[in-house]
Amino acid sequence: MKKIGLLLLMVVIVISLSGSNMLAAAKICKLAEVHPDGYPTAEGDKKFAELAEKYTNGRVKIQCFFNSQLGTENDVVEQTKLGVIEFTRVSIAPVVSVYPEIGVFSLPYLFNSHEHQWKVLNGPIGQHFLSAVEKANLVGLGYFEAGARHFYARKPLNSLADLKGLKIRVQPSPIPVAMVKLLGATPTPIAYGEVYSALQTGVVDGAENNYPSWVTANHYEVAKYLIEDGHMRQPEILVVSKKFFDSLSKADQEALRRAMREATAFQIDAWNKYESKMLEQAKAKGCVIKKANIAEFQAAVAPIFDLPEHKIYKPWVERIRATK
Ligand code: GTR
User: Which residue in 17, 199, 273, 292 is deepest, having the highest Cβ count within 10 Å?
Assistant: First the structure.
């Protein structure tokens, strides 16, 4: 009789604890990242993981996988969509294949400064895209800084004319492809992890990226001529699988959003320090950096806004340009 009483008591305790979330098992999640540990997005990921665990009282534990260990950006976006990977940090470019509208942020010379970009990302437009990406079974938690992208090649780049006819590696995404065509070069989509060897072996003549990627991925060793044209300011995004997100309590969902807000501020700070350090490192290595005639590049890519397939971006472009 005593034993039955004890058993009943235990059952009651278990039921009430599970209702109060205290017994919810810790979920070990994966986060995919193409950059190495120490790169500003990787630092942002780690900060996010640390805060997510703290604010969910250990119910969400995140393990970060760097250096494309879980696959290319296009692959991990698919895997996150399916819920196989819970979190992924990618550029906007690979998200375009599952949710085309977000490609507006890939358009060249859309943002005129870091300040303009973050005003848009933190305002109603940026927030709209974080929730609208749900159409692709993803939930956008927030953005990270990626600076501006420039062209670099194995041969000197002094002006737009030097890009003509070159094979340029681009992210496997439609807007970079269209943009490079308008500049008179041949776009060659290749996954990030394979760009170094493509440059080294001459499969491509050049590529385009921000200073930290040019340096940390060692592209600068084999493509040391850079023309600073700042054609794109594509933000990075951290997405979570909607399937996983929906399985969390409202409080844990809010805990993840809070963790990302704080991780973003941390990452922007890390970015600013790292970007100038990488530029100095490239100069010290003897890289040749030229300032572009930006007006010339802007004029060449201007038709991108009027391409029939880019009609969907028009209203957003107008709103973004009007954001002061
Ligand atoms: C980097 C970005 C990566 C990846 C890479 C690329 O700037 O941080 O997420 O998209 O560019 O060019 O593939």
Answer: 199
Report the atom number in ligand 1 closest to the C-alpha of 39.
8
Of 296, 320, 259, give the one whose Cα is nearest residue 124: 320
Q: How far is the CA of 16 from the centre of ligand 1 (A)?
A: 47
- CA 154 vs. chain centroid, Å, equals 26
Residue 66 has pLDDT above 90, yes or no: yes
Looking at the structure, do residues 227 and 243 belong to the same domain, yes or no? no
Task: Give the domain extent around 186.
Answer: 149-233+282-322
| Pocket-testing residue among 66, 209, 239, ligand 1, by greatest number of atoms within 8 A of Cβ | 209
The response to whether residue 253 sits with its C-beta less than 6 Å from ligand 1 reads no
204 Cα to the center of ligand 1, angstroms: 17
pLDDT 10s digits, 89-120? 999 999 999 999 999 999 999 999 999 999 99
100 and 41 housed in the same domain = yes
* CB of 192 shorter than 6 A to ligand 1: yes
Assess whether 198 and 315 both reside in one domain: yes
The pLDDT confidence band at residue 27, using thresholds 50, 70 and 90, is confident
Give the residue-averaged pLDDT of 286-299. Answer: 98
Token output for 86: 């819970």
Same domain, 129 and 62: yes
**Stretch 213-240: mean pLDDT:** 98
- Residue nearest (by alpha carbon) to ligand 1 atom 11: 209
Name the domain count of the chain.
2
Q: How far apart are CA 109 and CA 188, in angstroms?
A: 21
- The mean pLDDT value of the chain amounts to 94
Q: 34 CB less than 6 Å from ligand 1?
A: yes
Cβ neighbors of 95 (< 8 A, separation 6 or more) are 77, 102, 133, 136, 138, 237, 239
Query: Identity (one letter) of the amino acid at 98?
Result: V
